[in-house]
Amino acid sequence: MAQAIDKKRSANLRLQRLWYADEVRWNAKLQSERLVQAFATVPREAFLGRGPWRILSATQLVRGYTKSADADPGHLSHNVLVAIDSRRGLNNGHPSFLASLIERLNLKHGETAYHVGCGTGYYSAIMAEMVGEHGRVVAVEADKVLAHRARRNLKGYRQVEVVNADGFAHDPGRVDAILVNAGVAQLSRVWLEILRAKGRLVVPLTLGNWGRVLKATRNKPDWQARFISSVGIYPCIGARSRSAERRLRQAIAKGGADKVCSLRLDSHERIRDCWLHGRGFCLSRRSS
Predict the structure, then answer these.
(1) 27, 20 contact by CB (below 8 A)
(2) What span, in angstroms and rounded, lies between the C-alpha atoms of 20 and 162?
(3) Of the residues 29, 86, 90, 282, which has the maximum number of CB atoms within 10 A of its CB?
(4) Neighbouring C-beta atoms of residue 223, cutoff 10 Å
(5) What value does the mean pLDDT take over residues 188-212?
(6) Smallest Cα–Cα separation from 264: which of 248, 275, 250, 253?
(7) Positive or negative, the Cα torsion across 14, 50, 102, 62?
């Protein structure tokens, strides 16, 4: 009798995960069937500890967290935020939003991906599914406790390495794609140097928790760059300074972000086409 009940619960959970993946597909307008399958496969509850969980719907932000009725994993099979640390407002990111960013990376089998700000590892696991067992994911987390949890949660993924370090400064070696899972006020020179030819960088540029997501692609010797969405996200430790935030604030205030089309790494004087003339990089409205 108990075995029959467990079998039914497992079947129900598989079905719920399929519904969840389909919900993510439609909300994120995903084109990648492999990515949809990754969301249907990776068990979200394995990365969020024992329930009940504190859940936050994107449409009910003002009301705050709602505690799930019990520890049924089905509660996590929805396109909602789930608290990692509710006191800090730190959540397991919004699935459809993160899915849209991961799809922008265009990950291929056998590639190496760098995940900055991996939290407890859920989206690193999704990326691991995308690069496959012959690929590699380096997942970095500055918070020691979260890094420990991520390492434990991801132990079944041989292609994933979890590092407790400052993702703004850590050098994981050459990579094909970088996803920065926290808001920064400036770009890391390390990120720009480690990307291989045709490498992709997806990173939120924010003031505090709010800003825009930038995608940059390295097409030697030039870089293409454009903003792809707005974002509300937890700020990245180590990737902010008063001078960097001042430059970003001035750039946002003057407008024209939608005209950004290239990333320049050459040394040059600030000109009219410079939207954000940062330290060691420039987001430009001049095509490369």
Answers:
(1) no
(2) 27
(3) 282
(4) 22
(5) 94
(6) 275
(7) positive
Return the residue matching tokens 């720009």. Answer: 192
Q: What's the pLDDT tens digit per position in 71-99?
A: 999 999 999 999 999 888 899 999 999 99
**pLDDT tens-digit map of 139-181:** 999 999 999 999 999 999 999 999 999 999 999 999 999 999 9
Pairing, β 112-116 against β 66-67 = unpaired
E-assigned strands of the chain? 54-56, 66-67, 81-85, 90-92, 112-116, 136-141, 160-164, 175-180, 195-207, 210-219, 222-232, 262-264, 274-277, 282-284
**Amino acid identity, position 147:** A
Domain spanning 2-284, CATH architecture:
3-Layer(aba) Sandwich (3.40)
Q: In what order do the strands lie in the sheet with 262-264?
A: 160-164, 136-141, 112-116, 175-180, 195-207, 210-219, 222-232, 262-264, 282-284, 274-277
Task: Give the C-alpha separation, 16 to 201, whole Å.
Answer: 32
Q: Where are the domains of the chain?
A: 2-284
How far, rounded to the nearest angstrom, does the alpha carbon of residue 172 sit from its chain's CA centroid?
A: 17
The pLDDT of residue 205 is above 90 = yes
> Which residue in 36, 34, 42 sits closest to 14, CA to CA?
42
